[in-house]
UniProtKB/TrEMBL annotation:
UniProtKB keywords: Membrane, Transmembrane, Transmembrane helix
Source organism superkingdom: Bacteria
Pfam families given in the database record: bPH_2 (PF03703)
Protein name per its UniProtKB record: YdbS-like PH domain-containing protein
Transmembrane domains' residue ranges: 12-31, 37-58
Residue ranges of domain YdbS-like PH in the record: 63-139
The keyword Membrane appears for this protein: yes
InterPro entries noted in UniProt: YdbS-like_PH
UniProt keyword Transmembrane helix, yes or no: yes
Amino acid sequence: MGNVLSKRAVSIWRIYEAIRFIIFSFLYVIVSFFVPTWVVLMFVCLSIVDGMLFVFFVPRWKWERWWYMIRDQEIELEHGVWIRKRTLIPLRRVQHVDVKQGPLARKYKLASLYIYTAAMAHEIPFLDEQEAEKLRYYISSLVKEDEHDE
């Protein structure tokens, strides 16, 4: 099984980035009372560029570059906008698999799949709810088969 994330992930990432943009804009306003005018203008310009880039473009790029493949012996993850990260998780290292869903993901009927090994947790974010559950059971069954083969 291999796939990309749900396209609705773009909407959630846009909301996250918009919240970040609002928080930083608020901080820029506070800082503007203590710095010269030219610094305020620079903050405003940077804020506009930041907002345009991170709210409108980066979420789409993240979605286009997020990819996963589940094979009989391993799980491959690939993601990253500027720095690409490729991860191979051997199934024999998987300890358990969880599905998590925050309030915003629940609203969009999405969930994230977490794959735990002894070293760390790996996330496949924003899958359709049914797809996340299906993958959780599928990976669990592959792990059980791998345990029985040893």
